[in-house]
Design a protein that fits this description.
The chain folds into two domains: 66 residues, Helicase, Ruva Protein, domain 3; 135 residues, Dna Topoisomerase Vi A Subunit, Chain: A, domain 2 (3-Layer(aba) Sandwich), CATH 3.40.1360.10. It has eight helices and seven strands, in the order αααββαβαβαβαβαβ. It is of the alpha/beta class and 212 residues long.
């Protein structure tokens, strides 16, 4: 009788572990660039290296969940508010580079060609997805652009239909202000996204920006 109970406990334990592993694989498979097959490889690697990978990853995720916040000034994500980019006194206050999301900000931040400020819209206008001006952080940009310090707003939205539509909308909203409005030019392919471009391409695009 005791033997049967012991076997039943082992079976339940194995079933529970299998269920937890499947759940972990399903969650990882939802991440960008990871499908079910890649997620299984990641999970296996984590399980095989629990002390060096899994445990530190768990602690890092818990720490990030507690400390990461959105910058109330530019929309970036960081462990402080305002973020480290906005807090940097060496950056050029006269320029604001407008991007769609945080990934684009990080892409441009890696490039030494730009040393101004940033503003994250949080997406683009999209009639198909039901995203209108009220869903984007446009009011925050207009408020910042009205500052006497700001001389130029660079519209660095992606070279997609929605990205360009958003850029033209913002350009119209900024047209009454006495500031230069420019956009990225050469170097950014049509349909391209900033996060996938190399530093040389981004440098060329920033240098060749043009009035809108």
């Amino acid at each position: 009788m005791a033997c049967n109970y012991h076997l039943e406990c082992l079976f339940r334990s194995d079933a529970m572990a299998e269920s937890q592993i499947k759940s972990l694989i399903q969650l990882l498979a939802k991440l960008p660039g990871l499908g079910p097959r890649s997620a299984r490889r990641v999970v296996l690697s984590l399980i095989k290296n629990q002390e060096t990978l899994l445990s530190p990853l768990i602690r890092a995720l818990e720490d990030a969940a507690q400390k990461i916040t959105q910058c109330s000034t530019c929309g970036n994500i960081d462990t402080c508010n305002p973020c480290n980019v906005c807090n940097n006194p060496k950056r050029n206050d006269a320029q604001i580079c407008v991007v769609e999301d945080v990934a684009d900000l990080w892409a441009l931040e890696r490039n030494p060609s730009y040393s101004g400020r940033f503003h994250v819209l949080g997406g683009t206008l999209s009639a198909l997805d039901g995203i209108g001006p009220q869903d984007l952080n446009v009011p925050g940009l207009l408020k910042r652009a009205k500052s006497d310090v700001v001389l130029e707003v660079i519209l660095a939205t992606n070279a997609t239909v929605d990205g360009q539509t958003t850029a033209h909308y913002i350009a119209e909203k900024l047209s009454g202000l006495n500031i230069k409005i420019s956009g990225l030019a050469h170097g950014v392919p049509v349909g391209g996204e900033l996060d996938y471009l190399d530093e040389g391409t981004l440098s060329a695009a920033l240098r060749a920006r043009h009035p809108i």
